[in-house]
């Protein structure tokens, strides 16, 4: 009986291992693996990432394979994370990207620097970090080679989430997926936030139009002095502490709007334009 | 202690012991009424604030601080400052530095009103220096109040050249105080930090599930003048628990997280805490820990949680010493398992297990027909030992 249970455990483990894409070190000349591939799940990710593990978990982390590679005195670590879905992988990328650097065309998006690279493709999020003998050395070519090599092995979506296309590109600073409590409000569970030179826009997807309506109702009650606005299915505008001029509307399953503008009218004008782009 | 002492009794006893400790000279409390800070459109009643002195730094910190690692929006930080929280923690490694940017945005012009800490996980002194300069730039400040070496669990993780970088930064005025953050190994690490004499603060995991050795280490460190900041105060929270886990319901019930926070700030050796605060609701909830001390109801919630993990959780009382017919150090092995299962420190648990003699590593509890170890606190020793052997051997 014990043997059968053990065999079953081994078979399950093998099946899991097969389902995962394991990283290796042969993407650039002179690089060899140093040690074996380490596997992490939500239960032991703290072991490896310490407090930063919460960030992964909040975005929908499933598992991670990690390997160290060496070339002479230089070491790099590849962390290949499998997330619950492609949106979660892209969301983690938006959380970790340097907003001052452009997004490179690797998978759904990536960034390559002299000693690090990150990108997302399908449900995978990849981080490559080099600890070079010379902290100032430019190893961009190595990072590009590793990122390109790993990206080829991964299957999945290469297009960004549709919601990103709805945000105006004028004076856009960054767009990120906020995994919980959009705008710092528990009511708005998960959504995209676009930061502009002035103000920010957001889009939150609810499960059904009915649940979206319920959240909208609570949200309107939350803002003292909110007045109705004529946008999409229903809308309100207000002037609120910490969020300044705000306008929120509901369109079907979507709750969206603008905040942190000098006045509510300005927020409403921009929100009306956003509403036309949401299907 | 009687053989049928319940976890609840243990908790209550532990609390009483904590209360009985002499109030340390460096630990004082006072209550102030901060300005009212309405939550995005809603009026909020003023919170009561408690302050303690952070060891030899002399800094007066609110007993509830703010861990900003998963804060969803800068406005939550801004409001926390307005409500009077004055200790904010981030790290270079959180979201590849984006968390430091979010903290800077949230603090804005109020940065000098608060105590700001960040950490570096840099593996060498060159990287460490680079991290400091980057943190200063991203936090939009010309000094950091407390700069931690991030996630070190033993003295070997803290090389002298990194301490030199910290001390140099202090002399240069880039850093006011230095420290180390640690998730494990406190019973060895904290005495070493005290003996080393160069650190001002320790940021340590500490919560209601931990054993007595942790209390001893923390009390001794505080007594020696180290400022003690507690993290992981919610015992890992509910994020790591899977749907269906009975502890998920317990930890997500109303007041459960708050009870865990109150339990930590009840301890005089802890100057402040840094629970991760995601949104305005959590901020309001955590502030209550300063207004309302740990109550019998809170104890009941925590006891229920501990009762749930009792079959799994060894309190290291030592009453099983010598009971194992194979001579296994049962409490030690269960502690290694707690590192992995309780604190998420698998590597540490395995490392300790592999330090056992080869003879002890080879023992398989499943081979014994009857286990001679009978835990007075209800820990299911045979199954837990078997799990440790399966996991580490």
Give helix % range of chain A: 25-40%
Give the N-terminus to C-terminus distance of chain A in angstroms.
57 Å
Architecture of the largest domain in chain A in CATH?
A: 3-Layer(aba) Sandwich
Low-confidence stretches of chain A: 1-19
Arithmetic mean pLDDT of chain B: 83
**Number of helices in the DSSP assignment of chain B:** 15
Q: How many angstroms does the end-to-end distance of chain B come to?
A: 33 Å
Helix-strand sequence of chain B: HEEEEHEHEHEHEHEHEHHEHHHHHH
Shape of chain A: elongated
Largest sheet of chain B: 8 strands, parallel
Q: Kindly give the count of domains of chain B.
A: 2
Characterization of the model:
- The complex is a heterodimer of chains A (279) and B (393).
- Chain A is α+β, with helices and mostly antiparallel strands and 279 residues long.
- Chain A contains 7 helices and 13 strands.
- In chain A, the strands form 2 sheets. In chain A, strands 7-8-9-13-12-11-10 form a 7-stranded antiparallel sheet, with helices on both faces. Chain A has a 6-stranded antiparallel sheet with strand order 1-2-3-6-5-4, with helices on both faces.
- Residues 1-19 of chain A have low confidence and may be disordered.
- Chain B folds into 2 domains: 8-305, Alpha-Beta Barrel (TIM Barrel), CATH 3.20.20.100; 330-392, no CATH class.
- Chain B has helices spanning 7-20, 74-83, 98-107, 125-138, 160-171, 186-196, 212-223, 246-252, 256-265, 280-291, 296-309, 330-341, 346-353, 358-362, 381-392; strands at residues 31-32, 49-53, 60-62, 66-67, 87-89, 115-120, 144-149, 175-182, 201-205, 227-231, 272-273.
- In chain B, the strands form 2 sheets. An 8-stranded parallel sheet of chain B has the order 4-5-6-7-8-9-10-11, covered by helices on one side.
- In chain B, α12 packs antiparallel against α13 and α12 (330-341) packs across α15.
- Mean pLDDT of chain B is 83; it is low at 1-35.
- Classes of the chains: A alpha+beta (279), B alpha/beta (393).
- Chains A and B meet through α2 and α3 of A and α2, α4, α10 and α13 of B.
């Amino acid at each position: 009986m014990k043997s059968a249970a053990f065999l079953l455990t081994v078979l399950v483990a093998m099946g899991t291992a097969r389902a995962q894409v394991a990283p290796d070190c042969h993407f650039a000349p002179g690089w060899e693996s140093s040690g074996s591939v380490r596997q992490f799940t939500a239960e032991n990710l703290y072991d490896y990432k310490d407090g930063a593990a919460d960030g992964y978990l909040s975005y929908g982390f499933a598992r991670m394979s990690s390997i160290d590679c060496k070339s002479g005195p230089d070491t790099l670590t590849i962390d290949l994370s499998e997330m619950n879905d492609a949106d979660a992988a892209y969301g983690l990328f938006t959380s970790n990207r340097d907003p001052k650097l452009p997004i490179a065309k690797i998978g759904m998006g990536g960034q390559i620097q002299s000693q690090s690279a990150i990108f997302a493709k399908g449900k995978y999020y990849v981080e490559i970090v080099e600890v070079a003998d010379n902290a100032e050395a430019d190893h961009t070519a190595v990072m590009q080679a590793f990122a390109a090599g790993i990206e080829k092995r991964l299957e999945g979506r290469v297009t960004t989430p549709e919601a990103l296309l709805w945000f105006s590109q004028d004076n856009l600073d960054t767009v990120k997926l906020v995994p919980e409590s959009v705008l710092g409000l528990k009511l708005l569970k998960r959504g995209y936030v676009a930061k502009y030179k002035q103000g920010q826009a957001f889009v939150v997807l609810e499960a059904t139009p009915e649940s979206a309506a319920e959240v909208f109702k609570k949200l309107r009650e939350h803002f003292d002095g909110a007045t109705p606005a004529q946008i999409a299915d229903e809308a309100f505008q207000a002037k609120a502490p910490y969020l300044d001029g705000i306008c929120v509307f509901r369109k079907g399953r979507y709750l969206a709007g603008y905040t942190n503008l000098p006045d509510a009218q300005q927020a409403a004008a921009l929100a009306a334009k956003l509403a036309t782009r949401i299907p | 202690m009687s053989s049928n002492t319940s976890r609840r009794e243990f908790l209550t006893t532990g609390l009483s012991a904590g209360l009985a400790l002499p109030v340390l000279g460096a630990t004082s409390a006072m209550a102030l009424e901060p300005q009212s800070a309405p939550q995005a459109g809603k009026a909020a009643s003023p919170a009561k604030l408690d302050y303690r002195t952070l060891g030899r730094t002399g800094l007066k910190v609110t007993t509830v601080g703010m861990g900003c690692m998963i804060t969803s929006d800068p406005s939550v930080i801004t409001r926390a400052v307005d409500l009077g929280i004055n200790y904010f923690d981030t790290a270079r490694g959180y979201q590849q530095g984006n968390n430091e940017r979010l903290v800077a945005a949230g603090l804005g012009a109020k940065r000098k009103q608060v105590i700001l800490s960040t950490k570096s996980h840099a593996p060498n002194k060159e990287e460490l220096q680079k991290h400091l300069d980057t943190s200063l730039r991203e936090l939009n400040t010309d000094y950091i109040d407390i700069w931690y070496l991030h996630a070190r669990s033993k003295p070997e993780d803290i090389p002298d050249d990194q301490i030199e970088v910290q001390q140099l930064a202090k002399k240069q005025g880039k850093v006011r105080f230095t420290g180390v953050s640690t998730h494990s190994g406190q019973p060895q690490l904290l005495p070493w930090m005290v003996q080393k004499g160069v650190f001002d603060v320790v940021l340590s995991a500490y919560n209601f599930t931990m054993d007595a050795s942790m209390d001893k280490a923390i009390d001794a460190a505080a007594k020696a003048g180290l400022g003690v900041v507690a993290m992981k105060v919610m015992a890992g929270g509910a994020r790591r628990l899977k749907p269906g886990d009975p502890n998920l319901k317990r930890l997500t019930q109303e007041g459960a997280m708050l009870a865990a926070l109150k339990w930590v700030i009840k301890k005089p050796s802890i100057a402040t805490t840094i629970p991760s605060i995601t949104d305005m609701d959590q901020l309001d909830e955590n502030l209550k820990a300063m207004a309302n001390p740990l109550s019998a109801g809170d104890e009941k919630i925590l006891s229920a949680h501990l009762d749930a993990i009792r079959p799994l959780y060894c309190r290291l009382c030592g009453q099983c010493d010598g009971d194992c017919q194979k001579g296994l150090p049962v409490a030690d092995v269960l502690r290694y398992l707690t590192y992995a299962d309780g604190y998420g420190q698998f590597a540490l648990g395995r490392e300790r297990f592999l330090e056992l003699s080869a003879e002890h590593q080879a023992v398989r509890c499943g081979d014994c027909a009857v286990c001679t170890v009978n835990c007075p606190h209800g820990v299911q020793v045979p199954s837990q030992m078997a799990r440790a052997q399966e996991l580490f051997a």
